[in-house]
Specification:
The protein has helices at 16-31, 47-53, 80-83, 95-101, 105-117, 130-134, 138-149, 177-194, 197-202, 216-220, 237-255; strands at 5-9, 37-41, 59-63, 89-92, 121-126, 160-163, 204-208, 227-230. By secondary structure, it is α/β, with parallel strands linked by helices. It has a single domain (5-10, 32-255), classed as Aldolase class I (TIM Barrel), CATH 3.20.20.70. The protein is globular.
């Protein structure tokens, strides 16, 4: 049984004061929603403050990125040792890291490995660009990204994968639920070949890309889709609550015996 997960990626938004006010507004109502795992991923500067606010709640905390070395002369970077004990999850390989900051599949692999070695749960992001999608190369790109990201990594139940077609991120143009589900099934089959069928079946795979309270039901109604990695809508309290509530209601029914 795969417990659904809704993760809010705040990206480079909110000061520490903004983040605290937002969580204060959200905390009690979000905490009361059952049947779905809830995750907030604020900027690094707010992790300590939000960690303290989430104590004794059911809400999880995650970072948006990390470097693969434990320490060293890497000015401006954050290591897995700095995150361990402070948060539970870490987003890795997001398309914005790949395209704006030049992260390769090989770098993502090192990051996933380092996260798992330090007790963090990676959310591995994969997805094709618009030109790749239009050229019919979606499966080719996804296969490469997943295979390289998981190279030399032992089966890990703590791993989460997020399928985020680059052309849908922040554009307001989400993928179709059927198309997303088909790609996610393809990802699950890749994991089954790399690891084994049981691990692949237990692995949570999310959809991300222009997810809102208006379209989330279409995605989470698909049995293959285990939740969402939410960007802009995670910065709007009522929107995010709506996404989490709908996921809990729909996935709760799907998971019932």
């Amino acid at each position: 049984m795969r417990i659904p997960l809704i993760a809010g990626n705040w990206k480079m938004n909110t000061t520490v004061t903004d983040a605290e006010a937002f969580v204060q507004d959200l905390l009690d109502r979000l905490d009361r929603i059952k049947g779905v795992e809830k995750l907030l991923c604020p900027p690094f500067v707010s992790l300590v403050a939000i960690n303290m606010m989430l104590q004794d709640s059911s809400i999880k905390l995650g970072a948006q990125n990390m470097y693969f070395e434990a320490k060293g002369a890497y000015t401006g970077e954050i290591s897995p040792l700095m995150l361990a004990g402070l948060c539970e999850f870490v987003i890795l390989g997001h398309s914005e890291r790949r395209w704006y900051f030049g992260e390769t599949d090989e770098i993502v692999n090192k990051k996933v490995k380092a996260a798992l070695e330090n007790g963090l749960k990676p959310i591995l992001c994969v997805g094709e660009r618009l030109e790749e999608n239009e050229a019919g190369k979606t499966q080719e790109v996804i296969n490469r990204q997943v295979e390289i990201a998981l190279d030399s990594i032992k089966p890990a139940s703590d791993l989460v994968i997020a399928y985020e077609p680059v052309w849908a991120i922040g554009t307001g143009k989400a993928a179709s639920s059927e198309g997303a589900a088909a790609t996610i099934k393809f990802i699950r089959n890749i994991v089954a070949k790399l690891w084994n069928k049981d691990v692949a079946q237990d692995l949570r795979i999310l959809y991300g890309g222009s997810v809102t309270s208006e379209n989330v039901a279409e995605f989470v109604s698909q049995p293959e889709i285990d939740g969402a990695l939410v960007g802009g809508s995670s910065l709007k309290a009522e929107e995010f609550l709506g996404i989490v509530n709908q996921t809990a209601a729909i996935k709760g029914k799907l998971l019932s015996p």
